[in-house]
Specification:
The protein is of the alpha/beta class. It has a domain of 161 residues: Zn-dependent exopeptidases (Aminopeptidase, 3-Layer(aba) Sandwich), CATH 3.40.630. The protein is built from ten helices and six strands. A six-stranded mixed beta sheet has the order 2-1-3-6-4-5, with helices on both faces. The longest helix is centred in the last third of the chain and has 23 residues. The chain is globular and about 45 Å long. The termini are far apart. Zinc ion binds next to loops. The site of zinc ion has 6 residues, from loops.
């Protein structure tokens, strides 16, 4: 046991090395109450997968394609209704983007929020939405999802160097890595809960809840960040819903309303 504790400490230091950006001032406030006059200026929208990585599959639909279409709908809503918020896309076409580059794009733009869209895969009876933030997984199923979403780095060159020796096939790698505590946990969870609530109450999707696991794509984002599983492509009804333009619009509008609520909360924090 003692050896394991020591090993954890060493690896955590390794993972949470100087490349993990923690904004000055933010980490010191566990309540994550934003500073006075805080404004959300930039949101990064990340369509999962793309190019040679098509993600998970339904009967006809592919994850990369549905994520992109829904991201573009969401971006359009924000651009139309919030002209003072800059929308940055990690991809707007069917191209491959490495996981580290997705976080890199968000950091380069000093984004205030990072939203990554995906679709799920499982038994045919499984359906529903999930909203994920970075954190330790509580079940083997949660670990399995993080492993699937992280496995894309196997398609990247030099992934061992780029991800500090992280092995997406190793449960132990995920356990140690997911213990990394994000300075942005509070606001990530806050936004995640708004998204979950919109999906349940307004879009009327079945919610599988807000969950935590270690996702590489969220790891190095220096801002609140969530990964949204829009639904299961392996469920016939859900695949049809998500593969349809109106379904994509409903999901995008749910996320948009969650973003609007989140933005109002954070920007209104200096009024009281
Ligand atoms: Zn995915």
């Amino acid at each position: 046991m003692r050896n394991i504790v020591i090993a954890c400490t060493v690896v955590l230091v390794f993972f949470a090395g100087p490349s993990v950006a923690i904004a000055p001032g933010v980490a010191a406030h566990p309540s994550a109450k934003p500073p006075q006059g805080y404004r959300i200026r930039t949101v990064v929208l990340d369509a999962g997968h793309g190019g040679k990585d098509r993600g998970c599959a339904g009967a006809t639909a592919r994850e990369a394609q549905i994520a992109l279409k829904t991201v573009l709908e969401l971006g359009h809503l924000i651009e139309q209704n919030m002209p003072d918020v800059k929308v940055v896309y990690t991809r707007k076409t069917d191209v491959f983007v490495e996981l580290a580059d997705r976080a890199g794009i968000a950091n380069k733009h000093n984004a205030d929020l990072f939203i990554s869209l995906h679709c799920n895969s499982g038994p045919a009876v499984a359906y529903g939405t999930e909203v994920w933030t970075m954190g330790p997984h509580k079940t083997e199923a949660n670990l399995a999802l993080a492993k699937r979403e992280n496995a894309v780095i196997l398609q990247e060159d030099d992934y061992k160097e780029r991800y500090n020796g992280f092995d997406p096939r190793s449960p132990q790698s995920h356990i140690l890595f997911s213990l990394f505590q994000s300075a942005y946990m509070v606001n990530s969870l806050r936004f995640a809960q708004h998204v979950d609530s919109e999906f349940k109450n307004r879009v009327q999707r079945h919610s599988r809840g807000v969950k935590q696991a270690g996702f590489l794509v969220l790891w190095k984002t220096a801002m609140p960040s969530v990964l949204i599983e829009l639904g299961f492509l392996t469920n016939r009804n859900e695949e049809q819903y998500l593969n349809d333009k109106s379904g994509q619009s409903y999901m995008a509008s749910g996320i948009y309303r969650a973003f609007r609520t989140y933005r109002n909360e954070l920007e209104g924090a200096d009024e009281g």
